[in-house]
Amino acid sequence: MATANYIKGQSETKITALYCRLSQDDGREGDSNSISNQKLILQRYADEHHLLNTRFFVDDGFSGVSFERDGLQAMLQEVEAGRVATVITKDLSRLGRNYLKTGELIEIVFPENGVRYIAINDGVDTAREDNEFTPLRNWFNEFYARDTSKKIRAVKQAKAQKGERVNGEVPYGYLADPDDRNHLIPDPETAHVVKQIFAMYVRGDRICEIQNWLRDNKILTVGELRYRRTGSTRHPRPQLEAYYNWPDKTLYDILSRKEYLGHTITGKTRKVSYKSKKTIKNPEDKQYFFPNTHEALIDEETFELAQKRISTKQRPTKVDEIDLFSGILFCGDCGYKMYAIRGAGTLERKHAYTCGNYRNRARNDFVCTTHYIRKPVLKELVLADLQRVMSYVRDHEQEFICTANEYSEQAMKKALSQQQKELDKAEKRINELDILFRKLYEDNALGKLSDERFVFLTSGYEDEKKALTQRITELRKEISTAAERGADVRKFIALVRRYTAIDELTYENVHEFIDRILVHELDKETNTRKIEIFYSFVGKVYSGEKPTENTCYFRQIGADVKSIAI
Predict the structure, then answer these.
(1) Which residues are CB-neighbours of 211 under 8 A, at least 6 positions away?
(2) What is the DSSP string of 71-92?
(3) Is the pLDDT of residue 281 over 90?
(4) Which of 279, 450, 466, 565 has its CA at 20 to 30 Å from residue 141's CA atom?
(5) Which structural domains are found in the chain, ordered by start?
(6) 10 Å Cβ neighbour count for 308?
(7) Do 152 and 167 touch, CB atoms closer than 8 A?
């Protein structure tokens, strides 16, 4: 009688929604679960029970755990618009395998919109009042999904531990070997693009300049190339005019991939939950590393130089140019980055650097001193010291190896101690800023501080807090990897051998040879300024010779100033 009433009350304008779903896992079970067979079952049931105006909503290849399915969402839009009288599925699991979401649809969404729900094989019909076991069936469906997910994860992890590729995607620049899908071979069409991206980046070109080169040479984006080769629509295709517009993220991903060194890394990501498609990056100690598994596209030196530049996130100056010492020049007393002082059209001989903490002195409680040094002075000193080091390495290689190894151990301990002190100081300052911000907020709320003054002060504190937070992250990373650092003398020697001579500093050779430069404040009693230069892989280099010096007239004190590399 109840069924007859539903049929009688069904408006001819309302539809009978026939929902079909097939997941990738279901596809392994044969034709019984195929979309075509589901359609036959649903249509036959609707015809036999005189349920009119049928319309199919289909999700082919979607997990029942996720409810972000195109077909399901389209059907729910019709439901909420009041255009659906009945929803029919083959069984409850076709609607979904999340018992909370499925229960919400059956017990709240459908009833509120006057929709009858039928699951044929499970004997569920909301027109009847004998559906007490429906929640239990939904729970079992979710249990099945959870168990299946656990088994799939175990299989994938076992494959990852053996170095097998489990995500199916091949890094851009490579192809899967037709004889062995776990082995990569260079892609003749795109391998040269990867090499060009690295070459441009390490010589100092900005990301936008690399993007311009890719666009000018009509190099298809990774997603568009994959679509043309495979037809995959996993990622949305760009508009026609954007086929050659490479996103920043894609380029940084390429520049960071160790696969281009010839290594295989598996287990890099994991899903947050079997109910979610979101993935998070695994820490390196939980990834699986297999060296020298395929032909490398990039050499070690180029890759490490790229990582060094990525870590400092170089930004162009106001005159649209990346500074020669960007990211490696620091105050020798407070540890803040040194900032370039220049203006558009200003001659380079007037360019200079000053401590970032001093520059923001109006907003900082701790005030450092200027640490002012002109750019030509620094360039001349660094070039001279680099030439000294290269000459020493070539002429006294064995002596250099012994000295560098001995110094490295001492320097690492000292650096670790300094970094820990800087970290403690930064964390203390963060706590102080939090207290200051709360006090300013209270003063503003009580009318003791004007809105304009409040905005000015808090913006300054927020900028400082942001910089401190970034530095804390860097320090923690440096401290955690301190044990892995140390002298890699052979790499530095190989680097020196790549150059016959260096007569001029470039962004590329500066960042290739030097890790960081510390500028100390001028000693006005002796008119002497000390500058520490730390070279890649080896740190400071002592040759037993007289330290590199530069003497230049300093107009601000009206005297000659001696700059010494120590």
Answers:
(1) 245, 246, 248, 251
(2) HHHHHHHHHHTT-EEEEEESSH
(3) no
(4) 279
(5) 2-151 (3.40.50.1390), 189-262+297-312 (no CATH), 329-565 (no CATH)
(6) 17
(7) no
Q: What would the mean pLDDT of 236-255 be, rounded to a whole number? A: 80
Joined together, the tokens standing for residue 396 give 């006294």
Q: Each residue of 263-296: b (16+ CB within 10 Å) or e?
A: ebbbbbeeeeebbeeeeeeeeeeeebeeeeebee
SS3 447: coil
Q: Are residues 480 and 419 in contact, defined by beta-carbon separation less than 8 angstroms?
A: no
Q: Which long-range contacts (CB under 8 A, 24 or more apart) does 7-14 make?
A: 7/49, 7/50, 7/51, 10/51, 10/52, 10/85, 10/86, 11/85, 12/52, 12/53, 13/53, 13/83, 14/53, 14/82, 14/83, 14/84, 14/85
How does pLDDT run across 63-96, given as a tens digit for each residue? Answer: 767 778 889 999 999 999 999 999 999 888 888 8
Can you say whether residue 452 is alpha, beta or left, with left for phi > 0 and alpha for psi between -120 and 50 degrees? alpha
**Of 178-182, 263-267, 510-514, which has the strongest mean pLDDT?**
510-514
CA distances from 337 to 54, 330, 519 (A): 68, 4, 10
Q: What is the pLDDT of residue 385?
A: 92
Q: How far apart are CA 4 and CA 428, in angstroms?
A: 74
Q: Which of the listed ranges 23-32, 222-231, 465-474 does the model predict with the highest average pLDDT?
A: 222-231
Which residues are 562's β-sheet partners?
528, 551
Closest C-alpha to 469, from 438, 516, 427, 434:
427
pTM for the predicted model, two decimal places: 0.48
Identity at 438, one-letter amino acid code: R
Task: For tokens 């106001």, name the residue.
Answer: 318
* First CA to last CA distance, the chain: 97
CB atoms within 10 A of CB 300: 12
pLDDT of residue 408: 58
